[in-house]
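Q: Joint fold for the lines below.
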Amino acid sequence: MSVSAAFDKARAPDRAVLVGYLPAGFPTVERGIAACRAMVEAGVDLVEVGFPYSDPVIDGPVIQRASDIALAAGVRTADVLRTVEAVAGAGAPTVVMTYWNPVEQYGVDAFARDLANAGGAGLITPDLIPDEAQLWLAASDAHQLDRIFLVAPSSSDERLALTVAATRGFVYATSVMGVTGAREQTSSLAPDLVARTRKVTDLPIGVGLGVRDGAQAAEVAGYADAVIVGSALIQRLLDAQDFASGVSALSALAGELADGVRRR
Amino acid sequence: MSDGVKSMASGGPDSSGHFGPYGGRFVPEALIAALDELDAAYQKAMGDEGFQAELGRLLRDYAGRPSLLYDAQRLSEAAGRRILLKREDLNHTGAHKVNNVLGQALLTRQMGKRRVIAETGAGQHGVAAATAAALFDLDCTVYMGEVDTRRQALNVARMGLLGAEVVPVTSGSRTLKDAMNEAFRDWVANVDDTHYVIGSVGGPHPFPAMVRDFQKVIGIEARAQALELLGRLPDAVCACVGGGSNAIGIFHAFLDDASVKLCGFEAGGEGVDTGRHAATLTGGSTGVLHGSRSYLLQDADGQTIESHSISAGLDYPGVGPEHAWLHDAGRVDYQPVTDAEAMDAFSLLCRTEGIIPAIESAHALAGALRIAKDLAPEAVIMVNLSGRGDKDVDTAGAWFGLLSEDGSPGGGSSDGGSSDGEEGSQ
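A: Joint structure:
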């Protein structure tokens, strides 16, 4: 299922798509799947399953902590694919957000094939730029997967054009210069970046890095096609006394965010 | 030597930063503009007489270059072959690292940035970066794994004295690789006013080529010094390899000299077969880490495996992409040296020459002693003595039983060092 299903669904009511991120295997594989499903039931349109990685250079402390918990519990590549299969089966388009080395070690084409077979829609690749992505471009074509590359406030117009030309599904706009993590204020850089990106593509544009509540989601939905939330959702699970109350808190936030993306 | 290998000295990387299949840029898009800016400044500087003159002046008047090429006669007697030591340990700050940071500090100033960040393992690069920051009046933050801040406490204090902020990194294995992760995070957030002074020949393009170019001075000097001393080239050149900047620095001038055997010695830790080592080229496989494709230590899923070495400066699960290329091409022979072998060589140099080497450099010495017996009796081996061992006195003292765990005087002697000695790294 391509991510376009989520964007199609949001078009008529003229709202933004809500994208929720959770790492696979956090806190365990089964519970990670349950949390993703709960997020979908609470209003998340598109799920980003994070591939926990030993050296997550663009992630802030919250995602690092969740990834470390998943890795310490022994999460493997097969568990990431199993999570995708279970979450996609719940009805929401599901993509994997992954650093590049785990994909390369699995085999780029093999990973693409198995991701497609699991019902996954594609990959978000935070440390793979199109310039280095020849194998992934070929594999994603062969297996009809979306490939979501990142653009940044520091991207030149030339690089924006190059990046969106290689992108399929949606463009991931990093709204602040910095690592992932919820922030008090969303960035003023984001509207400019979205406007510059729109000049070079008709693809939907998602804005990530920093959104933590419904008001911020509504603000971002005012100029972006998708609102991407990760750390704030994970924080609900980390802060909870037990998993059940964590999922309740996660669902409550997802619901608030879903309401926010409808108030554009 | 084939023409293909002959091209190596001038052949890499290509315009997009690739050494054959290695190198490149595996970083967030947010950093690409800064890397492009850096590449442009570096390319301009390489051809700029004013820049080169200023760098040359700094290397001479501030760092103390050229470093000596020392004919180590007592060590040679012990080794059975003549050994020449390239004395990078005599540079200001005590290691080869200063060559690179002076170049990058000049570039930082040219780019109009006023803050530098650095990662450090043994602390030598952190000290060098802090030194250059003081000299160039730049703010400086150094990321250092918490484990390393303990085993290299003296260098933490040195960086503080120089005005740098040292941030102990508590994520992951709390060593060099995690310090590098944290430095990348800082850079992504502060790239507008901050330059990341990477200390070795790893990371995204243009760092591997740029750092090599700032370290090439080692080999250029050493080659000329050998010709003057010997009237010919050495038969072998040895260096330790962690990320690999001192090794590339001394190898590069010899890449096209087919008669010169080039040997890189990686940290074998407790032995490559134990899994507790940092011998990336010997015991690793190809993949992507910290911005470039090279060899690394990883599991079947591509998760980085924590390295181990008694030497903090070699305790890194990756290696620069040009080394991966030279390894595959067969131009450089890479071998592992265990903690115990390195410490035996460390002791030998102390006792025969009155020189306390960095434990990193002791790996190169141990390697030289190993290959000596395979070379002709008249062979001459050049060893890059990349750093001095003052920072390692605690570790070595504990290894040889001269200090107890808490650093107080113990009862042992340095003859007691062996593979069953105290590690001193914990």
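Q: Anything notable?
A: The first strand of chain B starts at residue 18 and ends at 19. The interface with chain A takes residues 16, 24-34, 171-172, 177-178, 181, 184-185, 188-192, 287-291, 298, 300-304 of chain B (CB under 8 Å).
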